[in-house]
Automatic annotation (TrEMBL):
Protein name: Trafficking protein particle complex subunit 12
Biased composition (Polar residues): 1-13
Domain of life: Eukaryota
Spans annotated as Disordered: 1-21
Source lineage: Eukaryota, Metazoa, Ecdysozoa, Arthropoda, Hexapoda
InterPro entries tied to this protein: TPR-like_helical_dom_sf, TPR_rpt
Provenance organism: Molorchus minor
First and last residue of the signal peptide: none
PANTHER family: D-ALANYL-D-ALANINE CARBOXYPEPTIDASE, TRAFFICKING PROTEIN PARTICLE COMPLEX SUBUNIT 12
């Protein structure tokens, strides 16, 4: 299965017939884990409707000759692209979504990685990981009892149980008419595995997991042999054991899951593989895998064992939450300062320097607060910036007002602020883009299109910006299914004024 999504058993197969006690504890554990992922250093995170389109509210656009030498840095936020639900690439200047957008392919060491992978190892595992980290490369050899050595135990592939029943009860002729998807009918990778699961061919999917695990040295006959683990290999095991449970093969699922125990062995943590993951901390195993293994004994007639494992998980999660409340990482280590915090600290130091453009720095600090979701903190900074500048509000102050209104979903008020700023600086493409966004969220689609089209018509060299183009293409799609010719017109403009363009824009124009 894909590393991006870590499915729970219910996502694949619907609700199971668990007893109420196990359901209650499972729900409490899942909710506690969710609180860990959502816990921030500030409590002013904004929630946005994930069904609404994300559009480019702010983007980098350096004017040729800014009147204020600090404008190129402080007024125009750099690109921070995310893909919205409607396929829009967003260069967000503020954060209105608590979703961290985790992907295992993002750079190692990000905040999202830390939250997702966090787990407190037991003392024996912790000592082993410390020894591994401090030893010279290639010189550390753990005891075998500290290794997880799983392997596929089923010697033969599972057959078509339904087909066998049809043949036995209804005859060979009826069985010959049966058409099902087999492991050999799909690609031999996670895409094929997903296709089998979605088609309900669970036994064939189990057969395919055995083939895929062979790649990691964990296939048939490999139980008890050391091998390396990765997020992908553990995701395959999670899927395989979930499928075995779905097909009621509880004894086999229990036997193959036995080497994993409670996923607390040292070789199931990133620190065990410094040559592969550098200094990345945390557990390679997903939370869903932990929960599945804790519930497994219940399916085998051992509900007390399940309760004991669920209580153990709950105790660990509560300790992680307590560590976070004390300003530590989930595992109790001192928390490293995040990039946003470091930027705040540096901006604060710059504000206190003699002769510094205090109003510009305070404005930048306010926008940084917005990017972190702290609207109240941003408003304080913007007010101080306006006081430090004195006089009537300028472009920067009006834009700051508009950003606060956007953060509060007051798009009509935001539009008025951006419109006033545009009157002072008619050629500022960032402001025009934000005006279009406010019109869209205010329910004025045609007016939003008109604003963005007028921006391109008045200043095609600078207005043919990636964010504005992607927004405009998306608005065309929302307006009508016949916007192809309008997109071709944009393509002609790009051909005329630009030597190159990102692939994402070209695909949006002619896709």
């Amino acid at each position: 299965m894909s590393e991006n999504a870590v499915p729970s058993l219910s996502q694949y197969f619907g609700e199971s017939d668990n007893k109420q006690d196990q359901l209650d504890f499972t729900q409490e554990i899942t909710e506690a884990s969710s609180r860990i992922n959502n816990l921030k250093l500030d409590d002013n995170q904004l929630n946005s409707n994930k069904d609404e389109p994300e559009v480019c509210r702010i983007f980098a656009e350096s004017p040729p000759q800014p009147k204020d030498p600090t404008a190129a840095f402080f007024d125009l936020i750099g690109n921070n692209k995310t893909t919205g639900t409607n396929g829009i690439i967003s260069d967000l200047g503020i954060s209105t979504n608590n979703d961290d957008g985790y992907s295992p392919r993002v750079a190692v060491g990000t905040e999202a990685d830390r939250r997702r992978d966090a787990w407190i190892p037991n003392e024996r595992t912790r000592q082993c990981l410390i020894a591994c980290a401090t030893a010279a490369p290639g010189s550390y050899f753990p005891d075998w009892e500290n290794l997880t050595m799983p392997g596929v135990l089923l010697e033969e592939e599972l057959g078509d149980a339904v087909g066998e029943a049809v043949s036995m009860c209804l005859g060979e002729a009826e069985a010959a008419q049966r058409r099902v998807l087999n492991a050999s009918d799909v690609t031999q990778d996670e895409r094929g595995l997903r296709e089998l699961v979605q088609a309900g061919a669970y036994r064939s999917a189990i057969n395919l997991t055995a083939k895929l695990l062979t790649i990691y040295g964990q296939g048939r006959g490999r139980a008890g042999h050391p091998s390396k683990h990765s997020p992908h290999s553990l995701q395959l095991w999670f899927t395989r054991i979930a499928l075995l449970i779905k097909t009621k093969a509880f004894n086999i699922a229990s036997a193959e899951a036995e080497p994993f125990r409670q996923l607390d062995k040292p070789d199931l943590f990133y620190q065990f593989y410094p040559e592969m993951y550098g200094g990345r901390p945390g557990s390679i195993a997903s939370f869903s895998f932990r929960l599945l293994l804790a519930e497994l004994p219940m399916h085998c007639g051992k509900p007390k064992d399940s309760l004991a494992k669920l209580f153990s998980m709950l105790a660990t999660i509560k300790q992680m939450l307590e560590n976070l409340r004390q300003g530590l990482c989930e595992d109790g280590n001192p928390m490293k300062i995040r990039g946003g915090q470091l930027a705040m600290e540096l901006l604060g130091q710059l504000c206190n320097r003699d002769g510094a453009p205090r109003h510009s720095l305070l404005s930048a600090l306010g926008r940084l607060h917005l990017q972190l979701g702290d609207v109240a903190g941003a408003e304080v900074c913007f007010n101080e910036a306006a006081d430090a500048k004195g006089g009537p509000p300028g472009v920067r102050e009006l834009v700051d007002r508009g950003l606060i209104s956007v953060a509060r979903s007051s798009f009509d008020d935001a539009y008025i602020s951006f419109q006033q700023a545009s009157m002072l600086e008619p050629s500022n493409i960032m402001i025009l883009n934000n005006m279009g966004v406010c019109l869209l969220y205010g329910g004025h689609l045609k007016e939003a299109i008109a604003v963005l089209e007028s921006a391109i018509a008045s200043n095609p060299v600078h207005a043919l910006h990636e964010s504005l183009l992607l927004n405009l293409c998306t608005l065309y799609d929302m307006e009508s299914s016949k916007g192809r010719m309008k997109k071709f017109a944009l393509l002609r403009q790009i051909s005329r004024y630009h030597a190159d363009a990102p692939t994402t824009i070209l695909e949006k124009l002619y896709g």
